[in-house]
Design a protein that fits this description.
The protein is of the alpha/beta class. The protein has a single domain, classed as 3-Layer(aba) Sandwich (Rossmann fold), CATH 3.40.50.300. It contains six helices and ten strands. Strands 6-7-8-3-9-10 form a six-stranded mixed sheet, sandwiched between helices. It has a four-stranded antiparallel sheet with strand order 2-1-4-5, with helices on one face. Helix 3 crosses helix 4, helix 3 runs parallel beside helix 5 and helix 5 runs parallel beside helix 6. The longest helix has 18 residues. The protein is globular, with a radius of gyration of 18 Å. The protein starts with 8 loop residues before the first strand and ends with a strand. The model has no long low-confidence stretch (mean pLDDT 92).
Length: 229
């Protein structure tokens, strides 16, 4: 039996705070967050609406910047980079999945995934094979020419996953990816996540308030009022 390989830390969060000014008064949304994401883990941020989990996810992905604290991504000081530097890191090393799928309605599943490769600057010669590979990974190889309105909610979410992993990111960030799905579809999405962690060597961090999917996570952070409990 081979010895287990220790996972490397991909993202480290130290004492992160996020404060917004609302009507001249400070609103403290994140309060001293400390966490770590290791390679090839499925990590869940669980909490009710308004707990701060989406704000934290946005900070992890560089879509927002913390008011205080540090975020190290792959050893780099992500929190203190310029907007242009963060954009380059996101484009090359991160993938995003949103609750509302965020697919282009007039494009087929294949074309939606191609769009991700185009935006990431992947050479056109690689598109066909990579698109097919990603749609096969999520079980949609027979639906690749269908447009979003011809697909179920679960199928649309799987296209969104294929789109998010197409450029081979190190980190996948998903905001409530099962919120619009029933229990059966949610279980399918979790199975897809576990599969792409194995095959794509990706780390996944997602927000959720669904207790039925927590058992598949490697780590669950419970959020209440901007803090972990």
């Amino acid at each position: 039996m081979e010895p287990a390989v220790e996972s490397r830390s991909l993202l480290t969060v130290t004492d992160v705070e996020r404060t917004f000014q609302v009507g001249g008064s400070p609103l403290h949304v994140l309060k001293g967050i400390r966490m770590e994401l290791k390679e090839r883990q499925l990590v869940m941020l669980r909490g009710r609406s308004g707990s701060g989990k989406t704000t934290l996810l946005n900070c992890l992905g560089g879509l927002d910047t913390p008011s205080k604290g540090e975020i190290l991504f792959n050893g780099l000081p992500f929190h203190s980079m310029s907007d242009d530097q963060r954009t380059l890191v996101r484009r090359k090393h991160m993938g995003f999945i949103f609750q509302a799928f965020a697919l282009m309605p007039l494009l087929s599943a294949r074309e939606n995934v191609e769009l991700s490769l185009r935006m990431a600057g992947v050479p056109r010669a690689e598109w066909k094979d990579r698109v097919t590979q990603c749609l096969e990974l999520v079980g949609l190889e027979r639906r690749m020419n269908h447009r979003p309105f011809e697909l179920s909610g679960g199928e649309q979410q799987r296209v969104a996953i294929a789109k998010a992993i197409a450029h081979k990111p190190m980190l996948l960030l998903a905001d409530e990816p099962t919120a619009e799905l029933d229990t059966g579809m949610s279980a399918q999405i979790m199975a897809v996540f576990q599969n792409i962690i194995r095959t794509e060597q990706v780390t996944i961090c997602m927000t959720t308030h669904d207790p039925t999917i927590l058992e598949v996570a490697d780590r669950v952070y419970e959020m209440v009022d901007g803090k972990f409990i």
